[in-house]
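Deliverable D4.2, example record:
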Amino acid sequence: MLLGSITAAKCGFAPAGPNSISHKTSIRLVSIAIICLSLCFLALPAHAQTVLAKVPVSPHPQAITLNPLSNKAYTFDGPTNDVAEIDGATNTAQFISLGTPPENPLNGAIAVNPLTNTIYAVNIVSSNVAVIDGVTHAVTFVTTGVHPVAVAVNRFTNKVYTANFDSSNVTVIDGANNATNITVGASPTAVAINQRTNRIYVANQNSASVSVINGRTNLVEATVPTGSTPFLVAVNQATNKIYVTNLSSNNVTVIDGATNTAVNIPVGRLPRGLALNPLTNKIYIANALDNTVTVLDGQTNATTNVTVGFFPQATAVDPLRDKIYVANFLAGSITVIDGATNATTTVPANAALVNGLAVNPFTNRIYTSDLVDDAVTVLDGPAGLSPAALGLLDGLGDEHGEDH
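Output generated by the structure prediction step:
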């Protein structure tokens, strides 16, 4: 789980690779870090969902991501071809130039490896990835397949994967500059990783399938049929289940990672946003044309619809507080769903078009990018840990206490 792994890394416990220490040992080390961190959370004063700052960035900020360990947020600014780095402590921005592009690299994707403090920014037009040092801001470029549209990082193996839409392959970047291309289905649009099994899942939009890549051999070991026009993919590492939103068939494909068998679950119209809470085993799908979020129970595949704002297109989860954040693109607002009750509140984001969305559970901050106002809005989240998070802490703490 990302939360546990990066917590361990912050305290110096992160393994150098997926097999460097035993799973049981790593869980126990992670438990110490999580418990300490959670006590800090509980000592903080209560918060409400309020706007803390609106940070000016370059025109048309797009995708946004976070490094929770350095408390920095990053967004790709299209026309100026730079990455804005936002300091979570001061809410100020620095700009990292990626050079002069031949065209505006709109819809650029971005990802971070928090263990190496490296940022990966995808340039669609130039068909490359900018590899950015998070400390020095030095930039190197790695050539990918044609028109990469998505990127994901395996922080343990230090491998980066880009989905290249017009060459129908995935570029694997080992560390900073050793690239390999793997042929997948037609027009791959999304990529996600199960870091426990070292399997990579690629959604192929025009072949209605997911390619399953073995991260050790770089071979496609399975192709799983999905609904029509798969768009996003997410992995629950705790259950080894993979979730794929299908734009044209208005459903979600649920793949069993152990068998690569799949089932399709109906959701709302134009399911665009996808996020999950591994602590509660709930999956959240934003249905843009219905103005709803479908809550999918990961154990039973039962669904519940929750009404949100106008044209929701992005979702993000704070697993520690069991809060789900939904970016309402055309409403300029954020809907906050309580994961325990599905009750909602709406927070004005002071934005014209809310695009990207990311949550830092450590600092309890939410970041949204605004395409029109050329800014990143920073919101404050509610305090307190969820029962699921507290239960996890109790269980991990008890297990750790057995080892003397």
